[in-house]
Design goal:
The protein has 276 residues and is mainly alpha-helical. It has 8 helices and 7 strands. The radius of gyration is 21 Å and the shape is globular.
Length: 276
């Protein structure tokens, strides 16, 4: 009897290991992170509005941090919902997700053909993204962190005023996202070695709605008024950076419960004493 059981179990274990090996080879190592040195970037909007001439818009300082090389994939998010059933599609609280949450997955624990394991996970709310990253000891990047890294092309840290770079981004923003979403790592890889900030999916940021959030209303009521319509354009630091306008408009349209078919996420860790 023992011999028979061994004969049945060993082939099953070998088959399971073979499947695991294939899956690991097909999925990018999104657990790897890159240290981004401290620096500065020129934000699209100056705050508070009306204080500084746009030609003298100050650059915003960004401390060193680590960022995921790739956006989080369906395979990685699948592992998360297996361990955290409260974030499975059928069990996630409607306070934190909308109806579209993981709607392209075939089932709670079955991404299916529309969500390849090596493709960035989409249809994930801000709340779900933060829950996933908290389990990894990470968080979403701030707008400053994301825009700072995303300003780099393959050769320079700040290509935000390079007409050729901006033209490439405009071309991407004008395309329809293929379905299923292409594999993580298939978008642009910049100078830092970070991939897919452009050319694949949009990404959540920690303070995506910061333009809609102000401090004490009597003291900064003029900020909101200067960020929209004609006033918003006049307050912009760079009229030529249309992709930045697109990102700003997209973020401003979101709510934390929203799950969008072109919106994914990645994680960051803040660093102390990292290289400058």
């Amino acid at each position: 009897m023992t011999h028979l059981l061994r004969g049945a179990i060993v082939p099953a274990l070998v088959a399971a290991l073979a499947v695991a090996q294939v899956l690991s080879m097909s999925m990018p190592d999104t657990s790897s992170m890159v240290t981004v040195p401290a620096g500065s970037y020129r934000p699209l909007y100056r705050l508070p509005t009306g204080v500084v001439d746009r030609r003298d818009t100050p650059r915003r300082e960004v401390h060193a941090f680590a960022m995921d090389v790739h956006p989080v994939t369906n395979g990685e998010f699948l592992a998360f919902v297996r361990d955290h059933p409260e974030w499975r599609r059928s069990q996630a609280k409607k306070l934190f997700v909308d109806r579209a949450y993981l709607s392209h997955w075939r089932g709670d624990l079955d991404p299916g053909p529309l969500a390849p394991l090596d493709s960035p996970v989409v249809y994930v709310s801000w709340f779900a993204a933060r829950a996933y990253l908290k389990a990894q000891g990470k968080d979403l990047p701030t707008v400053d962190q994301w825009e700072y890294v995303a300003a780099a092309d393959e050769t320079v840290r700040d290509a935000s005023r390079d007409p050729a770079f901006l033209a490439r981004l405009r071309s991407w923003y004008g395309r329809t996202l293929p379905q299923p979403v292409p594999p993580a790592g298939s978008g642009l890889r910049n100078l830092y070695g970070i991939a897919d900030l452009h050319g694949l999916v949009w990404e959540w940021t920690l303070d995506f709605n910061s333009a809609l959030v102000t401090g004490e209303s009597r003291g900064d009521g003029s900020i909101d008024a200067g960020l929209y319509c004609g006033s918003g354009a006049a307050a912009a630091a760079d009229f030529d950076n249309y992709p930045a306008f697109m990102r700003f408009a997209f973020r401003s349209s979101l709510e934390a419960r929203y799950s969008v078919g072109s919106l994914g996420f990645r994680g960051v860790r803040n660093l102390s004493g990292a290289g400058q």
